[in-house]
Known about the structure:
The chain is α+β, with helices and mostly antiparallel strands. It folds into 3 domains: 8-108, Tumour Suppressor Smad4 (Sandwich); 112-312, GAF domain (Beta-Lactamase, 2-Layer Sandwich); 333-554, PPM-type phosphatase domain (Phosphatase 2c, domain 1). It contains 14 helices and 26 strands. It has helices spanning 112-121, 123-128, 131-145, 153-168, 206-215, 229-233, 235-240, 264-267, 286-332, 381-396, 404-417, 493-496, 508-515, 523-538; strands spanning 8-15, 21-25, 31-34, 43-44, 55-60, 63-68, 75-77, 80-82, 84-86, 92-94, 102-109, 172-178, 184-191, 219-221, 244-252, 269-278, 343-350, 358-364, 369-377, 425-433, 437-443, 449-452, 455-458, 478-481, 487-491, 547-554. The chain has a 6-stranded antiparallel β-sheet with strand order 2-1-11-10-7-8, with no helix packed on it. A 5-stranded mixed β-sheet has the order 4-3-5-6-9, with no helix packed on it. A 5-stranded antiparallel β-sheet has the order 13-12-16-15-14, with helices on both faces. α3 (131-145) packs parallel to α9 (286-332).
Amino acid sequence: MPDIEDMTEAELAVTAPDKSCRTVKITTSPFLLGRGLDIGNHLALDDQRISRQCAAIFSEASGFILEDRGHRRGVFVNGKRIDRATLSSGDVITFGLDQSYEIVFRSRSSDQPLQNVLTMIGASPITQGTSAGLGRLTLLLEATSLLRSDLPLESVLGTMLDHAISITHADRGLLMEADASGSLRVRLARGSHGVSLSAGDLNPSQTALRQAMQLRKCIVTEDLNVADHALQAAQSIVAQSLRAVVAIPLYVVSRSISANSPAATEAAQFLGMIYLDSRRPTAFSKVDRQILDALAVQAASILDSARLVEQERQRQKLERELNIARDIQQALIPHGLRDFPYFGVTGIHNPCNAVGGDYFDAFQLSEDRSVIVVADVSGKGIGAALLTTMLQGAFSSMTPGTDPVQVFDQLNRFLCDHSQVGRYATMFFGILDRLGQLQFINAGHPSPLMMRSGNVTSLVSEGSFPVGLVPEATFDAKTVQLLPGDTLVLFSDGVTEAMDPDEQLFGDSRLHEVLAGKQELSLDGLQKEILNSVQSFTRGASQNDDITLLLVRYRPETQSSSS
């Protein structure tokens, strides 16, 4: 397979389903994408829903071509399904799947900026222009070359602004960025010859800025003495004795929309403004204005790149914070639960996101009594994880004489009194003693299943309120006597509400069927049976809820955990 020419650098920024990121260079053509490496894929995608022979990228004279090679769900570029498409730098490649791979294509060609500029300006005005026009074009080409440089962003933006000042013979210039509301703030302020200015010392014409934003085009006033009345009368212009003003709005069109599309103008995002002014009149030829337009496009491109870089930094920061939260949560959730003197136990928590809203635990309250608990906090993410940590703290601080009903009442009042938290929790809480007596409180949680003598029944038949939802809710403790060998299966609704690709639920009845006749399986075997059944049912469909299991088997005499 031929190597790709060095003059073109192309790479793929790959974001995996777990939000980890890496960059892969395209070094051969065709460059193959698919599941697994054993069939020659250059980029292996670890998602069972993706075809082994998924897609290929070719390097051709016209550029890089992406081809769908039979992926069942389709290959998409910027949200549009394709069979074969030419890639542009920044295009986003996806595979018609939720929570799967997202790939951004990036390409840098050594002559592309020059081609873009010459296309925008056109050859004829330059060949007919003066040496001054050629000199200004040279400045522009120097500025566009910065797009491929490794200089710091502020240096690139500063040089772009210096070139704009030189092209227009302005006294000073501002590069202004728009915030989320569209308000402008000064990012850079420069005088002629590259002198840095204080943003607070400049008072740009708000009238010129407002007109440029309203008209969505450049406002170029060569002599304010003959300009329209609104500009002539503007206080900032009069106070500063300005004679020439240039206001260039910077827009960028989404990569998913063709620049020539009728929707491009309306869909363009406002990034900011280049503002230039002078105390003397000036004159702009046709080529000067075209050069200025081209410079605006390049400035918008740089600002857009800066915006994307900042978004990526924020994403990485959030990812780091989520990783920290995940590590803390995983450290708090029990791993490798040890058997207790009178019951065996095993459990697992599989969050659907980096951090989950489920919680389970089993711990000794006294020599003869132990706590088992499963909870599911409403919502997802860090907020839900914080509340699970609070619940864990509340339960782990219980003493042998603590009344569990009183604990639930206090938790309910606390969460209801702090309703701005916007969270509640369903819970099953039980205290199992050495004689097999189980005292439990169920707060809106799916009923645990009890396996006894080959039969599977629901432990709870009555409904109840979650904790933190209804201020007037009351909680009652009930008691059940376990027999030797009885097994409790506690779970979160992520098990029974797991969905297949047709959005059918796994359901309570299917869970009963999985457990029926499996009394003799070890707890680990039962847990594996449930998880395998759910995975087989969902057939790779993405899930929106955590899956948590806690299995408890009462045995009055000390036996191995496999019993």
